[in-house]
């Protein structure tokens, strides 16, 4: 008889050249559609010229409902009510993390007329979760769902990322100085850990400085089915 046990599973090293820096914030409210205004405010505070290309500014997320408050429809004239637990998260090369914290800590940002004070920042490694979700992925060609998924699969294949399960959400239009920007949410499940980390590091599509193409860990499909939050 020949019997060979499976090799012991080797721990997977997560590259630390890209990290999320999570800042405490003090703000009462921001527009629901705040990605562009937030990205511009953050970029204006940075000490390096190529800032937007080097970072991803996550949009600020709050629960869909809280204490009787219902999340309003997407738009610049509707507002999210923030709590003390709400965070500002920025994905950045680790080599820039200290400069980012120095530049933003204590700064008061004007986000579309809303005052947002940035507190201390802490570095967080990228996740090993194999289900990832992006609230906004730019869809400049206004594809239908099937066409969008075909495009996403081709883009990910070019990045050497294998997808097994993918689900896109409804189209959401973001306001930008250059006009409306059409996006869709995208959930990817059952990724390899290495592919998950690669996708978090690289993102998908343009406009990461305003919150597009940034993937975060996710545990289900409810959010993508009901649209970005």
TrEMBL record:
InterPro entries, per database record: CRISPR-assoc_prot_Cas6/Cmx6
Pfam families the UniProt entry points to: Cas6
Top-rank lineage group of the source organism: Bacteria
Record protein name field: CRISPR-associated protein Cas6, subtype MYXAN
């Amino acid at each position: 008889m020949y019997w060979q046990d499976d090799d012991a599973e080797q721990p997977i090293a997560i590259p630390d050249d890209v990290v999320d820096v999570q800042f405490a914030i003090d703000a009462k409210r921001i527009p629901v559609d705040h990605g562009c205004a937030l990205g511009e405010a953050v970029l204006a505070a940075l000490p390096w010229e190529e800032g937007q290309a080097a970072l991803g500014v996550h949009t600020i997320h709050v629960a869909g409902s809280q204490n009787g408050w219902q999340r309003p429809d997407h738009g610049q004239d509707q507002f999210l009510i923030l709590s003390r637990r709400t965070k500002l998260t920025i994905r950045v090369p680790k080599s820039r993390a200290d400069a980012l914290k120095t530049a933003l800590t204590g700064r008061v940002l004007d986000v579309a007329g809303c005052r947002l004070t940035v507190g201390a920042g802490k570095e967080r490694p990228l996740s090993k979760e194999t289900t990832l979700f992006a609230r906004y992925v730019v869809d400049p060609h206004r594809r239908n769902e099937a066409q969008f998924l075909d495009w996403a699969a081709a883009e990910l294949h070019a990045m050497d990322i294998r997808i097994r399960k993918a689900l896109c959400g409804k189209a959401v239009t973001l306001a930008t100085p250059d006009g409306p920007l059409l996006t869709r949410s995208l959930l990817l499940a059952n990724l390899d850990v290495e592919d998950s980390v690669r996708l978090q590091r690289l993102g998908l599509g343009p406009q990461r400085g305003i919150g597009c193409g940034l993937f975060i860990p996710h545990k289900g499909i409810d959010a993508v089915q009901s649209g970005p939050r």
